[in-house]
Amino acid sequence: MSAVPKPAVQPLTVSQLTAQVRGTLEAKFLSVWVAGEVSNFTRASSGHWYFTLKDATAQIKTVAFRGINLRLRFDLRNGMEIIARGRLTVYDPKGEYQFVVEEVQPKGVGGAELALRQLKEKLLAKGYFSPARKRPLPRPPQRVGLIASATGAAVRDMIEVFAQRWPFTELVVRPSRVQGEGAAQDIARALLQLNWLHRNNKLAFDAIVLGRGGGSAEDLWAFNEEVVADAVFKSEVPVVSAVGHETDVTVADLVADHRAETPTAAVIALTPDRRELLASLGELRERMGESVARRLRLAKQRLDQIAARQAFRLPLQRVHNAGQRLDDIAERLHRAARHRLLEAAQELAGRSAQLESLSPLQVLGRGYSLTHTGDGRLVREVDHLRPGDLLLTRVRGGTVRSLVTATETTDPERTDPGARDSDPDQTPAAGG
């Protein structure tokens, strides 16, 4: 059982004890380097980072405040091996000691290299490097924007090469810092400004060139910043990145529509060489002259051959021959027409004779007659007539009008008076 402190002993409160421990730790471990693996990494909305540094047998709570994080070129991730400099302190509310980071370096690789690697991975995932989105360069361009240092050799070289190769292109120079603090933001701002002029029909650009000479990786770092990559990606005007030398590849090179190894190479990619064009035009003119001369010779030969033909030596001969053929054809047509008319007349006479033989009028010529009632009905039977009926009798040479005074029936079977009342629509007997 623990001993009860004597009244003369003044105990410490938890807060007092924690404060003394914190003071001892902070005085003893004011600045210390610690190597370990990042785990349990979280990013607070305040911008602070909280994680655990651990090795095979131990771990320590770690915090990196927002001001430190903003200066880091790379992001921390779980599983990353780092070397961190900082101080030890105690977080009073939980009574835990923690490591407050003030500087971080990746273990085994430089911070800048790691930051560049992480940025490339991020932009690759977002499609910034996709060949499908890269636009062809206009050649030759009418107006080009140059973003470069106003005092650097790059802008002078580009202007000089443009003047030599294709002086017809209008150049608009937008001076910008290309290295050092704030250079990335200035480059991005220049891209935005030239795109604003293009979008608002102030100055229409065919291409924009980002140019600077070579330098160390640190000198070229502005072109590896995400803000520049975003501005290049969002540019409405095709962008040519001409940064550094052939061995230097920046993020801007990867995002741009075209990557040129040097500023001079950018101008060559954009323009034809007028001297080469003039030489080519000279060759084309010579070849064209030879081709025209050859075609003229062939045309003359063809013309001589045509002129030697009979149609040109005796131009009316074909007309005379055609006239004779026309006369022959006309004569044959007349003979055929006469023959056809003769055949038709003979056929018509034969048919007329046939019709004449079948005509009822021929029967009248042999002493027969046709009798109709006054209303035009043919009289076929005597019992269809009544005394007083008007009759029209057709004989050869004319018609006889007569009135019925009486009728007599010669057929004994038709003497029945009732026969007179039979259907009047029956066909009447023939008259004679």
UniProtKB/TrEMBL annotation:
Keywords: Cytoplasm, Exonuclease, Hydrolase, Nuclease. GO terms for molecular function: exodeoxyribonuclease VII activity. Its EC number is 3.1.11.6. The keyword Nuclease applies. Pfam families: Exonuc_VII_L, tRNA_anti_2. It is an enzyme of class 3 (hydrolase). It catalyses: Exonucleolytic cleavage in either 5'- to 3'- or 3'- to 5'-direction to yield nucleoside 5'-phosphates. Residues 128-349 form the Exonuclease VII large subunit C-terminal domain. Its main location: cytoplasm. It is found in: Cytoplasm. The keyword Cytoplasm applies. Residues 402-432 are annotated as: Disordered. Residues 411-423 have a biased composition (Basic and acidic residues). Residues 12-105 form the OB-fold nucleic acid binding domain. NCBIfam families: xseA. Bidirectionally degrades single-stranded DNA into large acid-insoluble oligonucleotides, which are then degraded further into small acid-soluble oligonucleotides. Belongs to the XseA family. Heterooligomer composed of large and small subunits. This is Exodeoxyribonuclease 7 large subunit. It comes from Gemmata algarum. The lineage of its organism: Bacteria, Pseudomonadati, Planctomycetota, Planctomycetia, Gemmatales. The gene is xseA.
